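Issue 218. Parser rejects a valid record. Input:
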Amino acid sequence: MRGRFLAAFAAAVVVIPTGSAGASDRQLRDYARTTWASLAAMTDERSGLPADILRIDGTRSVETSTTNIGAYLWSAVAAQRLGLLSRRELERRLGRTLTTLERMERPSQNGGQFYNWYDHRTGAKLTTWPASGAPITPILSSVDNGWLAVGLHVIENAVPKLARRAGALYASMDFGFYYRPAVNRLLFHYVPDTGEEVCCYDTVVSESRIATYVGLARGQLPRKTYYGSHRSFPASCEWAWLETRPVGRTRTYFGVPVFEGALPYAGMLVTPSWGGSMFEALMPALFVPEEQWAPRSWGVNHPATVRAQIHHGLEEVGYGYWGFSPSAKPEGGYEAYGVDGIGSDPGGYPSNNDRTGIDRGFPGCPDRPALPDPPPSAYTNGVVTPHAAFLALRYAPQATLKNLARLQRDFPGLYTRWGFRDSVNVDRGQIADSYLSLDQGMIMASLGNALGRDVLRKAFADRALERGLRPVIGVEQFGARLSAR
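Output the parser choked on:
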C-alpha cells in the first residue's frame, strides 16, 4: 500500500507557477471568485478592515487582527490580477484600508509595531472581547506584524498609486525590536503596558519565520537569527518526551551549530513543525520562493509535508480526504488540527476531534517504548480544513484539485457563494458555520499565484528581499528526505 502511494505521489508532484488549462483552470477561477466574495463581504465599507470571522448568515465578528488586515491587502491584489475587480476599485478599497492603518493606535517606542486586536469597524484598539466582555491584554505579536508587513510590501510593489503610503508604513516597522541576542530568537510577543516578554519561537517550520524573513531582508536582524530555532528538537534522552525520536546530524551556519534532525514518517524523513499542520510549513512559501532559494532544505521539505498530509488523510486514517490545519471547528469554537506524526508537540495536533494520535517512543531511552499505532478505525470525527489543501496546490496540483472536488461533491453546503466554509467533520458531515479571513486569505494567495503567474511572490520577494534573504537560507541542508533510505 505504502509503495503504491509513494509512487503515485511522486508522479503527481510538480512545482507549478501557474494554473493548468481547461476544466482545472475553470475550477480554480470559480474558487477565486467565491473566495474573493467572502473577503469583500467581511470588509467594512468605511474602515476598509476585514472582520476576523464571516458567519454563514452574513454577520461579522467585531474583532480583526493585524494578520487579517495583511491577508486582505494581498487578497485584493490577487483578485485584481485575476480580473475580479478593476484597478480603480483596488485603489479605492486599499486606499481606505491604508487611511485606517495610518491612524490606528500603536505604542510610540516599540519598533512601530501594531497591536494584535482592533475593532474592524473603526480601527480602535480592543481591550475587551466584543462577544463576551472579557479583558484583552494588548500585545505586540511578531508573527502577526510580520503578516501585516507582507501585505504592505505587496501593495508597495504592486499598486503604484498607493506605493508611497504602503511603503511608509512598511518602513516604520522594525522587527529587530523582537530579537533577543541571548537566545538568538524572536519573541512571541511583547506587552507594552507591563514590559512583559513572552519568548520565543522554537521551530523554523513555523509561519512565524515570515517575521524573521522581513527583518533579515531589511538588515534589522543578524543573519544568524535564522539558525537560532530548532529544525527538530534534539535526539538525546533529555528530549524523550517527544513522540518520535529524530534522526540527523549537526551542521554549522553563520557560526551557529544546528541539529538537522527529521522525523521518520511514511517512508520519508520530514523536518517537523510544532503541530504538523499545513500552514505552519507552507504559508510563508506563498510569498517567498523557498523551494527555489533553498533547494536542499525547503525544496525537499515542502513536497514531503504535502506527501505526509495526503498519506495521513487517505491511508493512515482512511478519511478519503486530506488537508489539516488550525481552523474553526465544525461544532463551534476553534481547534488546531494537523498530522501528529510530523509534529513535535507531545500532545499532538490531531486530525480529529477525538484527539487520536501516535507515540513511537524514543528507542534507547528508559521507559519510552513505542506504542502500537492506532488503526484507521480509531480516527473518528476527522476534520478536514479546505484552506490547508489549497496550500498544496503548487506542489501537488492534480491531487489538490481532486481532493477539493471530492469535498465539494460529498459535503453539500461546504462550498458556497463565499467559497469553502472553514472545516468539515468528514464522519458526521457537520460543517463549520463560518469563514475565517486568514484562511480565506491563504486560499486567495494560493489561487492568485497559481492563476496569476506568481503575482504575490513577485510583489513581495523583490530583488532587495532576495539579496538579504537568499544567501542566508540557501546554504542550509535539512535532514528531510523524500525517501528515508
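Fixed in the parser; the record now loads. The chain has one domain: 2-473.
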